[in-house]
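Record format v2
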Amino acid sequence: MAGCARGSARAVLAFLLAPALVALLVAPARGRGGRGHGDWGAAELLPPRENAALVARFVTNVCDWGALATISTQEGVRGRPFADVLSLSDGPPSKGSGVPYFYLSPMQQSVGNLKENPYATLTMSLAETSFCRKYGFDPQSPLCAHIILSGTVIKVSEAEMDVAKNSLFIRHPEMKTWPSSHNWFFAKLNITNIWVLDYFGGPKIVTPEEYYNATFQ
Amino acid sequence: MAGCARGSARAVLAFLLAPALVALLVAPARGRGGRGHGDWGAAELLPPRENAALVARFVTNVCDWGALATISTQEGVRGRPFADVLSLSDGPPSKGSGVPYFYLSPMQQSVGNLKENPYATLTMSLAETSFCRKYGFDPQSPLCAHIILSGTVIKVSEAEMDVAKNSLFIRHPEMKTWPSSHNWFFAKLNITNIWVLDYFGGPKIVTPEEYYNATFQ
């Protein structure tokens, strides 16, 4: 009888332990390549959608990459719009400054473009995180909030270099290993226009002043 | 004795079943909002990186959204590069044609831009899926493969409309419910230039011919 009771106890224990063991097996590789690739429960933290400036700050902080549009200088497509993917960071999770910092190399096509024409538009979307999938929002639905930031991409000044470096390296530790032969430098988007698509009714315009004045609780 | 043997059998059964039950509980909401938002084991299926044309076809098929660069026609930023997020599809998972189809409305900023200047560049990245996070690749690392497709965005012809519709609605079922007041129409990117960044050494150029001739095994 004692043996049978232990058998039942084992059944319960096995039932309780198995999911934990499976979870350990399938857990994503954290700490390698980057931190905060949309896997820290962003869904619970979306600000009220009517506070467009705060939503914009939220998206900038949650995302650690975006797509940058520039004017192409490449042979055959000169003058046409060009798009590329860049890693970025405005600071640690929940502690972002709102400034999108980049780690760029003159070897990148976008950087060649920016040398001639510094105007650029950066777009970031909650589709980059688990948010939209979790709530079943299509990437093109405004409910899958995304933002569009226009301005110019400029090299970061000496005074701002530490902030840029810390913001980027905390979210993108792999950057510390990138080869110096690529002449990496810190840059940022100097924002002049902001559009927020987070609800039906069309894009909401947010001024840079409203954007930088928005504060997380 | 028979009772105790059943106890041990229950333990084994519980151990085997529990993860499945947990998986059912935590499974993401499928069928709402979109299908194939990077959650179908893309990592196992990445083609050999040296086959740049096939990698490009893979990324186009796996991604169901991208960022499109256009030239802005909007007041205050006219002539500058603009970027926006668009849903897309080249067909069902593993059965893509390589043609990125869009479902657009004249109310969208990008569409206003395209009316004046149809040149556009679309970029898609495996950072949109679980691939890069799983292997710890930074979004800006070439190992987190991304592609850049340049060309023109044009309305889909009558003959191609069914293909466009099926491709899009199978991956974006929510589109079937979008309001007709937005005058949605099917469009596609007519590709002229392709760059593939999937390994160190810079972007690989793939011709549209190589791209469309690539076949999945």
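The longest helix of chain A spans residues 2-26.
The longest strand of chain A covers residues 185-197.
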